[in-house]
Amino acid sequence: MSNKQTKRLRFHFISAARTNQAFTIVELLIVIVIIAILATITVVAYKGIQDRAYSAKAASITDTYMNLFEMYQADNDSYPDTNGNYICLGSVDDYPADGTYNSGECSHGGGPNGPDMAVDEDFNAQLKTINPTIPSGSLPNVADGPPIRGIYYIGDSDGGTISYTLKGDQTCPKGETDNYGDSTDCTIGIGDESGNYGGSGGNDT
To answer: What is the distance of C-alpha 183 from the center of its chain?
Structure first.
C-alpha cells in the first residue's frame, strides 16, 4: 500500500470518527430534551393527583362533621354553638405547635374575622355527647395568603358553615367555591345556612 493510500485511509477513519462523535452529541442532546419533557409531564400529573387526593380528604372530613352536627341537632333540637367564633374542628393534638402555629391552631391570623382560629374544647364537649371520639379536622398546610391547615366552623343553634381551603384553582366537591388563583375556599352550609351555601359543588359567580 502506497503512502498516499495510507494517508487517505487514515483520513477516512479520522473523518468517520469525528462524524460519529458529532452524531453522538446530537443524539445525547435529544435524549436530554426528551427526559426533561417527560419529567415536566410527570411532575404536573403528580401535582394534579395530589391536589385531588387533598380535596377528597377534606370532603370526607366535612361529611363526617356534617353527619355529626345533624345527629346533634336531632338529639338536642339545635346545632352546636360556637358563640360567634370561628373554631378549628378536631382536638388540640391534631394541631401541634409548628412554625408560626401555636398548639391547637389551624390558622395563624387567617380567620375570616381576623384573629387566629383554634380548637374550642367547650365546643368539643357538645359533640362528645353524640360521639366520644372527635374526628380530626387537620389538613396539609396551605400557605397562600394567611396560612391554614384545617377545617373550621362557625355556627349557632340554628346552623352554621363548615369551611376549608384547597391548594390551587379547583372546584369544591360541594358547597360554595371561591377561587383566589393559588388557593380555593370551600364553604358548606348547615341548617339555616344550607340555602346560602348549597350541598353541590360549583363556582360562585
So the answer is: 8
175 with 204: CB under 8 angstroms? no
Are the C-beta atoms of 100 and 89 separated by less than 8 Å? no
| pLDDT tens digits along 41-82 | 776 666 667 777 788 888 899 999 999 999 999 999 999 999
Question: In sequence order, what are the residues at sequence separation of 6 or more whose Cβ sits closer than 8 angstroms to the Cβ of residue 138?
Answer: 90, 94, 95, 106, 149, 150
Structure-block grid coordinates of residue 145: 395568603
The H or E element containing residue 26 is helix 3-76
Residue 70: is it exposed, middle or buried by C-beta count within 10 angstroms (0-12/13-18/19+)? middle
Global confidence as pTM: 0.71
| Residue 201 CB neighbour total at 10 angstroms | 17
Nearest to 139 by CA among 46, 85, 61, 201: 61
**Would you report the helix, strand and coil content of the chain in percent, each value rounded to 5?**
40, 20, 35
First to last CA, the chain: 88
Cα gap 111→117, rounded to integer Å: 6
In the block, residue with C-alpha cell 377545617: 151
CB 164 within 8 A of CB 173: no
Residue where the block lists cell 360549583:
202
Alpha helices, DSSP H, located in 89-187: 121-128
Q: What is the dihedral of CA 199, 47, 136, 122, to 10 degrees?
A: -70
